[in-house]
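B., you asked whether I could sanity-check this one before it goes into the benchmark set. Here's the sequence:
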Amino acid sequence: MKRIIDAVLKVKEISVPQDDSFEFHDPGALRDGELELVLFRTLSGNPDRGDVPTYRFKIMQVDSDREVGRIDLRIGNTERIIKYLGHIGYHVGSRYRGNHYAARAWALLLPLARSHGLEKLWITCNPDNIASRRTCDLVGAEFVEIVDVPKGTDFYRAGEKQKCRYRLDL
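And here's what the prediction gave me:
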């Protein structure tokens, strides 16, 4: 565990081009029979904030065409992504929880992440978010550590003082 933490602390910030040279890929059909991810927005990123290009998807039930949640895939390895925000962010509506929709949506995103050359994904959540921690376990992500969120960040101002960090090797 100490070797993993030491390696993480030595990670150099890898920038992703924040100009027209970044190309969003066509994600293709992202379906598992019951769920479908529908791309509804792409964001080019903001290098001043450490933001990277992002895909935003709705998590849809195929048979009912109901939106059950949302999931984002962030492409790049800034300190903000690796330590505090993560490559994947998601939310499942309260009435749809307990069906492993978040874990299934993650699985659908992995080929897209690989197509951008990502070799590992960092996922973060608040320490008291048991459902997100369980989702990380379900997809096979390895718990690495809990880090303190720096004062003065958006997270800190929103009351998020710590983040659990998980790593998923692709």
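One thing to flag: The radius of gyration is 16 Å. Otherwise nothing jumped out at me.
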